[in-house]
């Protein structure tokens, strides 16, 4: 197998985050894999990919020059002699499908998001037959893919995009006399619901909520909503909330928390919430995507309706009022996530998907020659 793994960008987090683990399973089964990114964005995912031994090709263009991106991808896939195109996210999928059609190369496509832009949804539904196999990153996204895109069950597989790591650092229990550290990981975008979190915290303050133990909240991520979130924090007088920016070491951040919160309006699997459970943290999550199936209310955290600041405030109040309970709930969360998403389960799911891959024998295989794709001047290969 020569798999061209096509992704929208090499931005840190999101769909780029699990690429090393996914491609590791592919290579364990004999595949040769290289990554083709349609644009760079912040480029923070490149280091993890290259550290995993992946060669990464990054196009120098932007996010709207679709014809130029299509031409680059077509040249790259053809030059590299791929016999399978594996796509991730809408733009990569739509362009990858066109290249696959032109070159006679089968296409396999991820579905990650619980939310799709209306135009992307229409286009993906119209072209769903051009991907020979669709892979959902969670059972909830699989159901949405059946309903929204009309993909028949026989062309749909599930590969949960999280592999719990037993070597990940574990959070230390809260101790009396220290503040309760609350945190969240995610880009500053309306879909992540941080405006809802700030509103919930503002309502707690307006109601006179003053737990015996001070608590501090860190939101780690960057995005266009920073200015509006800062204004909301100032309006509510939230001097205990910090927009900490992007972190290069999310695991270390999680290990320094006592409670995790994910107030998203929409999610697929939500890797960050599962990494929090891996770190031994109880979580307050909204009932979207896979999160309400992973978090056991009352045992490992709380589940609240999305976009409901009153419900979120009530859940936070209940947990922050009894911080001595957090460590026990976090231990239960860690056990639960390893039971559902351990490395063996991840590898088994990947192997089952790989066994279903449609392949076209690449021309020239076995002649000892290997051609490299066009390399953009400002791209990066490793």
Task: Characterise this structure.
With 382 residues, the chain is of the alpha/beta class. It has 2 domains: 2-163 and 343-354, Rossmann fold; 180-341, Glycogen Phosphorylase B (Rossmann fold), CATH 3.40.50. It has helices at residues 19-28, 46-51, 66-80, 90-103, 118-126, 139-149, 194-206, 226-236, 250-255, 271-278, 291-294, 309-320, 326-341, 343-354; strands at 2-9, 32-39, 55-58, 84-88, 107-111, 133-136, 156-158, 180-185, 215-220, 241-243, 259-262, 283-286, 301-304. The chain is elongated, with a radius of gyration of 22 Å. It starts with a strand and ends in a 28-residue tail after the last helix. The model is unreliable at 362-382 (pLDDT under 50).
Structure, briefly:
The chain has 382 residues and is α/β, with parallel strands linked by helices. Helix content is 38%, strand content 17%. The protein is built from 14 helices and 13 strands.
Report the CATH superfamily of the largest domain: Glycogen Phosphorylase B
- Using only C-alpha atoms, the radius of gyration works out to 22 Å
Oligomer: single chain
How far is it from the N-terminal to the C-terminal residue, by CA?
A: 20 Å
The amount of beta strand, in percent, is 15-25%
Mind summarizing the main beta sheet?
7 strands, parallel
Question: What overall geometry do the principal axes of the alpha carbons give?
Answer: elongated
Q: How many structural domains can be distinguished in the coordinates? A: 2
DSSP summary: helix tally: 14
Regions with little confidence, pLDDT below 50 for 5+ residues: 362-382
- CATH level-two architecture of the largest domain: 3-Layer(aba) Sandwich
DSSP helix fraction: 25-40%
Which strands sit side by side, in order, in the main sheet? 3-2-1-4-5-6-7
Number of strands: 13
């Amino acid at each position: 197998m020569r798999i061209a793994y096509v992704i929208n960008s090499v931005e840190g987090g999101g769909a780029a985050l699990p690429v090393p683990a996914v491609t590791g399973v592919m290579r364990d089964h004999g595949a040769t894999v290289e990554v083709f990114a349609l644009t760079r964005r912040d480029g923070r995912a490149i280091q993890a990919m290259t550290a995993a031994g992946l060669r990464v090709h990054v196009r120098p263009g932007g996010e709207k020059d679709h014809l130029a991106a299509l031409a680059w991808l077509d040249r790259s896939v053809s030059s590299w002699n791929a016999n399978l195109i594996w796509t991730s996210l809408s733009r990569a999928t739509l362009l990858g499908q066109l290249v696959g059609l032109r070159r006679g190369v089968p296409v396999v496509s991820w579905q990650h998001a619980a939310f799709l832009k209306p135009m992307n949804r229409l286009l993906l539904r119209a072209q769903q037959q051009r991907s020979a196999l669709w892979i959902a990153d969670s059972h909830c996204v699989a159901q949405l893919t059946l309903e929204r895109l009309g993909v028949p069950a026989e062309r749909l597989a599930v590969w949960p995009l999280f592999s719990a790591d037993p070597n990940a650092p574990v959070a230390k229990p809260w101790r009396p006399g220290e503040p309760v550290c609350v945190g969240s990981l995610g880009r500053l975008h309306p879909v992540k619901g941080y405006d809802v979190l700030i509103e919930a915290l503002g309502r707690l303050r307006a109601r006179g909520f003053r737990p015996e133990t001070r608590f501090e909240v860190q939101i780690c991520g960057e995005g266009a909503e920073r200015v509006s979130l800062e204004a909301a924090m100032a309006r509510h007088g939230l001097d205990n909330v910090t927009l900490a920016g992007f972190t290069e070491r999310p695991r270390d951040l999680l290990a320094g928390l006592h409670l995790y919160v994910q107030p998203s309006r929409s999610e697929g699997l939500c890797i960050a919430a599962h990494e929090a459970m891996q770190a031994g943290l109880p979580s307050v999550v909204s009932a979207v995507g896979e999160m309400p199936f992973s978090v056991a209310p009352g045992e490992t955290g709380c589940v609240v309706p999305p976009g409901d600041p009153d419900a979120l405030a009530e859940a936070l109040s209940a947990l922050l009022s009894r911080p001595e309970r957090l460590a026990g709930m976090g231990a239960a969360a860690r056990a639960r996530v390893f039971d559902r998403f351990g490395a063996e389960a991840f590898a088994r799911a990947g192997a089952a998907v790989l066994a279903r891959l449609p392949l076209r024998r690449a021309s020239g295989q076995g002649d000892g020659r290997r051609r490299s794709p066009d390399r953009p001047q400002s791209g990066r290969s490793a």
